[in-house]
Design a protein that fits this description.
Blueprint lengths: L4 E3 L17 H11 L8 E2 L6 H4 L5 H9 L4 H7 L5 H24 L1 E4 L20 H11 L6 E5 L6 H6 L6 E2 L13 H5 L1 E2 L7 E8 L12 E5 L5 H18 L4 E5 L17 H17 L4 E4 L8 H20 L1
Parallel strand pairs: 1-2, 1-3, 3-10, 4-7, 4-9, 7-8, 9-10
Antiparallel strand pairs: 5-6, 6-8
């Protein structure tokens, strides 16, 4: 039995047909965890869909109405890059419910992982980049509404910037983040100027995004800390940047909850990425986030976000390793 819970439903499957997003990965992750003996049936919690009231804590009524009635314009559907259906709406409401449950459970167990979610490109008034509803933002606002938390920090390690997260939680100024000394020998100093950090945080949610600069989205609204990585960065330099971003974030902000978006797409063989991380390097990334949160006694909820490896089993391995990393850190 794991020392924490996993949130999963067979209905996490996104009904989008043949697509670069491997909708079957959630079921494969669950099956791998059980077949390998990492988890057992009692480790899993079944989520309920978020309510419309929950969704409206983040998303504008006009947009929610369009989703519920199937009245998106062709442009709005095209921007979402997944084919609209009422079943897809139900899947996203369930993903939001899963993230709410994972956040609530993390407050009890110190960590909880939703085998889904992380739809960080969704904005308050529209969807983008395979994302219809911003499940993590909904979870944060729901827990704040219920007085379970006051503040939260998002740590987004998807290869693509969390533009929806940045836009939804916008509100502070920007400064430059120092180049980590550990990577100064291999990274061009010019990238330090491209890294944006916000100073004294005026809001209740602090956002960190570590992503490839030359990748989607073309316009990247400022997060509290954005680390714009050059193409082809490998394990050691990536971990140095992440460690520095976390240290900088926690020097200025004390969250009641950390929301970790553990994308699998910084992987070197990802179809939509251009970084050079190995499978083992990605596990070390997860371990770093978990160790930092544990050392500060901050509960962590995890969502999975992107992963588009040429071999879907690699994506499954990367996401499974996130559970293994949490087990190794939080069992000790």
């Amino acid at each position: 039995m794991l020392p924490f819970k996993l949130v999963y439903s067979d209905a996490y499957f996104l009904p989008i047909g043949k697509h670069v997003f491997p909708a079957e990965k959630y079921r494969r992750i669950r099956d791998r965890l059980i077949a390998s003996g990492v988890a057992e049936a009692s480790d899993f919690l079944e989520p309920q869909p978020a309510t419309d009231r929950d969704i409206l804590l983040v998303h504008k009524p006009e947009y929610v109405q369009k989703l519920k009635t199937g009245t998106l314009s062709p442009r709005e559907e095209m921007e979402m890059e997944i084919p609209y259906s009422r079943d897809l709406v139900d899947a996203f409401w369930l993903a939001a419910g899963g993230s709410i449950l994972a956040a609530q459970q993390a407050l009890q167990d110190q960590v909880c992982i939703s085998i889904g979610g992380g739809f960080h490109h969704a904005h308050a008034d529209h969807g983008e980049g395979f994302c219809m509803i911003h499940d993590v933002a909904v979870a944060i606002r729901r827990l704040q509404r219920d007085d379970q938390i006051r503040t939260a920090m998002t740590v987004d390690c998807d290869v693509h910037q969390g533009n929806g997260t940045a836009a939804i939680f916008a509100g502070t100024r920007t400064e430059s983040l120092p180049l980590p000394s550990a990577s100064a020998s291999t990274l061009n100093q010019a990238w330090a100027a491209k890294t944006r950090m916000r100073g004294a945080h005026a809001g209740d949610v602090f956002t960190i995004s570590l992503h490839q600069h030359n990748n989607y989205p073309s316009y990247k609204p400022p997060s509290s800390i954005d680390v714009d990585l050059p193409d082809g960065i490998g394990d050691d330099d990536y971990l140095a940047w992440l460690d520095n971003a976390l240290s900088s974030g926690f020097r200025q902000f004390e969250p009641d909850l950390l929301c970790y978006v553990a994308g699998a797409d910084p992987y070197r063989e990802d179809q939509l990425g251009g970084l050079d991380l190995t499978i083992q390097g990605l596990k070390k990334r997860d371990e770093l986030v978990f160790r930092v949160a544990k050392a500060r006694d901050i509960p962590v909820m995890v969502t999975y976000a992107g992963g588009y490896a040429l071999n879907v089993e690699d994506t499954v391995t990367i996401h499974t390793n996130t559970v293994l990393a949490a087990k190794e850190v939080f069992e000790s």
